[in-house]
Amino acid sequence: MNAHSIRGALPAALACVLVGASFTANSVLGDYPYAGGQFLRYALACLLLLPLLGRGGTAPLRHLTGRRWGRLALLAAVGMVGFNLAVLAAERSAEPAVPGVFVGCAPVVVAVLVPLLAGRRPQRVVLYGALLVAFGAFTVQGWGRTDTAGLLFSVGALIGEVGFAVLAVPVLRPLGPKLLSCTVCGVAALESALVGAVLDGTDMLRVPDVTEATALLWQAAVVTVIGFVCWYIGMQRVGAERATLFSGLIPVAAACTAPLVGTGTYGAAQAVGSALVGAGVALGSGVFGVRSAAGVQDDAGDERRVVAHGDVTAAGQPHEAGPGDSVLGPDALAAQQQPVAGAPGDGHRDVRHVVRELHLQTRGEGLREPGSVAQGQRLRDDRIG
Q: What are the percentages of helix, strand and coil residues in the chain, rounded to 5?
């Protein structure tokens, strides 16, 4: 794993650890109106994120199409409000481990779904790592009592977890982690208010006691603001497939913090499961020396469709002709053709290479024919004239 991948893995891991540790905060909010609590959490998080955007930080929102606004609304409804509703409904007839096991399968689903949506084949190393993570999450949590309704709502929780990553992929590049987090929190607050008005009416909100207020503040300021921004930073740098591997740390963090508040124990099963999750994350993210390709991705900092080649699978050798491959030899130039000098190297030895699409021309550039005036010179003459 190179330095760029590590800078993406660390924030993704931190985000998932914060979510896992927040389960203790959820345990003290059982008597608070659900929709009202979600409204307070996401509304406060949105307000806390606004100063972090800086002057003009919301400008990209003006360029979003209606389709992308619909995707943001779906992301908030499925990955945030819907996910929390599904978990709450599942725990009414199933033990918490049941939805936890289903959510632990999210890395496997994302490892298959994201490449297929991008028109490429799933990567074996990421898929194998995701399977290890899912099995480790199951070992940490075990299986519990449930019924049909509990299973169905647990599947809904899995869909919400997958949607939180997959639905964000097309809007992460134009918005960036901070603006995306702020926007979906604002949308989720509105959606929570609508759900609360329908389900609870005027009982949607009440003044929380000191313990509930502390838990809501923790969820808003730490889990949502820090966790969401870190999650999308990690996803932006290493891709949705590899970032979702770290969701296996959620049950591990929950199991480690449960003994601190007397809601669980950490035994041999939790230790073995934690080791499996760690091995799966290491394998899928490339810690064992096998780099998993995230494919060709749009560079998040460029507006001109620059293509950035990230980590790619390499065997340590340059591209060479294999069996059955024909090697192109020199081709004689026609009499009217002139040889073209090779492109200079960039000289910075960076593993990431930026390739500009040839059909896009930048300002002041153009093909110059013998005896003609350069495009940049023509533009300057036009300005003078």
A: 65, 0, 35
8 A C-beta contact, residue 284 and residue 128 = yes
Q: How many structural domains comprise the chain?
A: 1
198 Ramachandran zone, left/alpha/beta (phi>0; psi -120 to 50): alpha
Does residue 332 lie within any of the structural domains?
no
- Domain span at 206: 3-54+61-292
Rounded to whole angstroms, the Cα distance separating 23 from 41 reads: 15
DSSP E strands, the chain: 296-298, 307-309, 353-355
- pLDDT tens across 299-334, in order? 333 333 444 434 444 433 444 444 444 444 444 445
Residue 385 CB neighbour total at 10 angstroms: 5
| Unique residue bearing structure tokens 């005027």 | 202
**Residue 268 is encoded by which pair of tokens?**
């041999």
Q: pTM of the predicted model, to two decimals?
A: 0.69
Q: Are 248 and 136 in contact (CB under 8 A)?
A: yes
What is the distance between the alpha carbons of residues 10 and 275, in angstroms, rounded to a whole number? 18
Alpha helices in 54-123 (DSSP H): 66-76, 83-93, 97-103, 106-117
Which residue type is seen at 333? L
Q: Does residue 103 form part of some domain?
A: yes
Residue in the structure block whose two tokens are 């870190």: 230
How far apart CA 146 and CA 155 sit, in angstroms, is 13
